[in-house]
Amino acid sequence: MRQKLVVGNWKMHGSRTQVRQLIEGVAAGSAGLAQVEIAIGPTLLHIGLAAELCASKGANHLKLAAQNLFAEPEGAFTGEVSAPMLAEYGVNYVIVGHSERRELFAETDQAVAAKFKAAQASGLIPILCVGESLAQREQGASADVVLAQLDAVIEAAGIEALQSAVLAYEPIWAIGTGKTASKEQAQEIHRVLREHMAKSNATVAQGIRIIYGGSVKAANATELFSQADIDGGLVGGASLKAEEFVSICKSAD
Ligand code: PGA
């Protein structure tokens, strides 16, 4: 049985006050949930504050996710943050290959694979994002696109590396658009991803959590999370409201 995972991706949002309020709200609302694993993803600047708050009584069931890292452990890389630095702050997860990073910051499959490996080398669990654009979906290329993105990491890191990773299917056309993939559309891609991994390693394929992202909200979380191959969610906009995010977490509990 795979434990469900719900991750809040706060993107570039939040002041210190908002970080505090959001963590307090999420911690209080989710305190009684026994099954679901919950992680919050503040900006890199707020990681230290969030780590302190999450370690406090009443919030220590919340895990911490970073939104990005750089693949080198240290050096002359102005403005970047490394995996060992995140690990020192008690970060558990790190998002790699988010479509916003691929598109806006020109991250290639190779760069994503390097980040994936660097995260694991420091004991962090990478959340590897894959997803197709609207044009690619309309061309019927969704499966090919996500499998190519996954294979780039498998080639670089090996299939066994996915044993300590999370996969996130995030169709680009559903991110921040309010247009969620239907439960059938999402389940189909999750199944394709799992079957693809099973060809190389059935144990890895059965064990890995594949979470869905793209306009997840309280109103659609239950039907998405009830699909056989959907093991939780990567939540953007709706993770910025404590009540809404807690309600999503409850759908996974
Ligand atoms: P959204 O973002 O929930 O706002 O669509 C999801 C994501 O980009 O991770």
In short:
By secondary structure, the chain is an alpha/beta fold.
Largest sheet: 8 strands, parallel, barrel
Category from helices, strands and their pairing: alpha/beta
Helicity, as a percent range = 40-55%
Bound molecules: 2-phosphoglycolic acid
Mean pLDDT: 97
Radius of gyration: 17 Å
SSE inventory with pairings:
Blueprint lengths: L4 E5 L6 H15 L6 E5 L5 H9 L6 E5 L16 H6 L4 E4 L2 H6 L4 H13 L3 E6 L3 H5 L3 H16 L8 E4 L13 H18 L1 H6 L1 E5 L4 H8 L6 E4 L6 H10 L2
Parallel strand pairs: 1-2, 1-8, 2-3, 3-4, 4-5, 5-6, 6-7, 7-8
Helix pairs in contact: 1-2, 1-11, 5-7, 7-8, 10-11
The structure holds 2-phosphoglycolic acid (PGA).
Characteristic terms for this protein:
binds 2-phosphoglycolic acid, globular, 44% helix, single chain, alpha/beta, TIM Barrel, 253 residues
What does this structure look like?
The structure is a single chain. The chain is an alpha/beta fold. It has a single domain (4-252), classed as Aldolase class I (TIM Barrel, Alpha-Beta Barrel). Helices cover 44% and strands 15% of the residues. It has helices spanning 16-30, 47-55, 83-88, 99-104, 109-121, 134-138, 142-157, 183-200, 202-207, 218-225, 242-251, and strands spanning 5-9, 37-41, 62-66, 93-96, 125-130, 166-169, 209-213, 232-235. Strands 1-2-3-4-5-6-7-8 form an 8-stranded parallel β-barrel, surrounded by 6 helices. The protein is globular. The chain starts with a strand and ends with a helix. The mean pLDDT is 97. Residues 9, 170, 175-176, 213-216, 234-238 line the site of 2-phosphoglycolic acid.
